[in-house]
Amino acid sequence: MSTTRRVYKIKKTKKKRRKRLWLLLVPILVLGLGATTYAATLYMKAQNVFHKSYDPVEASAKRSAAVDPLEDNFSILFIGIDDSDKRDYQGNSRSDALILATFNKDQKSIKLLSIPRDSYVYVPAKGVTTKINAAHAAGGPKATMDTVEELFDVPVDYYVRMNFNAFIDVVDSLDGIEVDVPYELKEMDSHDNKGAIHLQKGIQTVDGEEALAFARTRKQDSDIQRGERQQEVLKAIISKATSAGSLTKYTDVMEAVGDNMTTNLQFSQIKGFIKYVTTDKGLNLETVKLEGQDSTINGTYYYQLNETSVANTKLMLQSHLNLGPEDASKQTEAVQSQIEE
């Protein structure tokens, strides 16, 4: 490859990365900004982004009726994908991060559940029990949503798929975020340069590359701690992004979003988020942890989820969605009955 073509490819890759993950912030940032001219401009840009990114999937079989984010409790599965040039994936890649968010309109609360990527679960699209990150490679967002539904017996109403690396540019646009680094950290950067990121232990402000390394490392702990760091980064982004001092930083990122992310959320449905970000009582955002242990099966590493932890998490999510086990079964039976008819 010539030097000119190599430089062009690097620039093009950087531009594409900047276009992703903004969807994660749009519901929080745009719709709660108020009736200012600047907010109206962002609103129109966000509307264009969602129109380009809309990619519907079949509705959850655990719902007997369509969900309205303006009126109902609902869930969103955030799917982080590692599709870097080095890996050069063709078609659907394995998911690199999975975070299930459930929204309760009455409590004005959000629960964030990080699901370890090596979790040993049943994947309906493959018909086998294997790593949960194989679901996306088998059938994209829908197969991943079905797998999470199978695991927790709750409907997964919406998905947002993005390149996990893309939040580098989002974090940088916010002039960094504050995180608590648990130990001295040496990690590669987004270009796989080993040791390029060096962080000391303690609370500090990190830039985009440092935030990525912080969220992805698991050399000194496990997938569970990795998931907790991803939750911490997401909470820090939301906190920083909703501060008044950040409002003038969004235009460049919004203009670069384009169509490099996918979701089954329509822009009109995003308006439901405004109830969560404008409440006088403040937004109650809670992280949920799955327990488990390392396991080797037939020579392959898996994360074996604790059955009690899964059962407790299942009940917690069902309660947060105001959907008890009996209700979930009734809704599933209702849908199946309609299909048979």
Write out key terms for the chains shown.
alpha+beta, disordered C terminus, 341 residues, two-stranded antiparallel ribbon, six-stranded mixed beta sheet
Describe this structure in words.
The protein is α+β, with helices and mostly antiparallel strands. It has 12 helices and 14 strands. The chain has helices at residues 3-18, 26-29, 37-53, 134-152, 167-173, 208-216, 223-241, 251-255, 267-270, 274-277, 307-320, 325-340; strands at residues 74-81, 95-104, 109-115, 120-123, 128-131, 158-163, 177-181, 185-187, 197-199, 202-206, 262-263, 284-288, 292-297, 300-305. The strands form 5 sheets. A 6-stranded mixed beta sheet has the order 11-6-1-2-3-12, with helices on both faces. It has a two-stranded antiparallel ribbon with strand order 4-5. Strands 7-10 form a two-stranded antiparallel ribbon. Strand 2 (95-104) and strand 3 form a beta hairpin. The longest helix has 19 residues, at 134-152. The protein is globular, with a radius of gyration of 20 Å. The N and C termini lie far apart (59 Å). The relative contact order is 0.19. Residues 3-10, 13-24, 27-35 and 328-341 have low confidence and may be disordered.
